[in-house]
Amino acid sequence: MNSTLRSRCAKAIGAGALSVALLSAGTAGAFAASPSAASPRPKPIMTGHAKPTGTGTATPTRTGTAKPTKSGSPMANGSITARVSKVTVKPGQSVTFTGRAKGVKVGTKVVLLHMHNGKWTPLKSSTVLKNGSSYSLVTKFNNKGKEQLRVMADKIVSPTVVVTVK
């Protein structure tokens, strides 16, 4: 992942440098070709002393690769997968969710979330990450319809899984 970010950063810097070079060359060429460049203009006269705007040393800027955040986005520090045992079930039938997590400590609580009224809300089904960073959750759905579900561990979420209850 770091190599991808580095290559994107390098491409962006290269494109910026090329744009600046082309822009400055075009400006210099346009200035040289303009008729006003042949006739000199009066030079401004300094009537005072230049004063420095800041007193101190410049602070260095930080360079390097961007650090991803734990916002639940695909760029989070870790990842978690979610597989469902059955994609179509009858009301009251058990469904098992299994998966693995990367970048999350063993013993971290894993919670099953479902989409309800446009928001992700937790269900009562939860467990903890076992050795090997794996988990297994069992839950039942009583209401008919399509359930959009995902798993969350330490603010890292899995891709959405859909279970249809018929």
Task: Write a structural description.
With about 170 residues, the chain is an alpha+beta fold. It is built from 1 helix and 10 strands, in the order H-E-E-E-E-E-E-E-E-E-E. The strands form 2 sheets. Strands 3, 5, 6, 8, 9 and 10 form a 6-stranded mixed β-sheet that branches. It is elongated and about 90 Å long. Mean pLDDT is about 75; it is low at about 60-75.
The level of helicity is 10-25%
Which structural category do the helix and sheet elements fall into? alpha+beta
Largest sheet: 6 strands, mixed
State the total count of DSSP E strands: 10
Ends apart, CA distance between termini: 41 Å
N-to-C series of helices and strands: HEEEEEEEEEE
Mean pLDDT: 75
Whole-number radius of gyration?
Answer: 30 Å
Question: How many distinct helices?
Answer: 1
List low-pLDDT spans: 60-75
Shape: elongated
How much strand?
25-35%
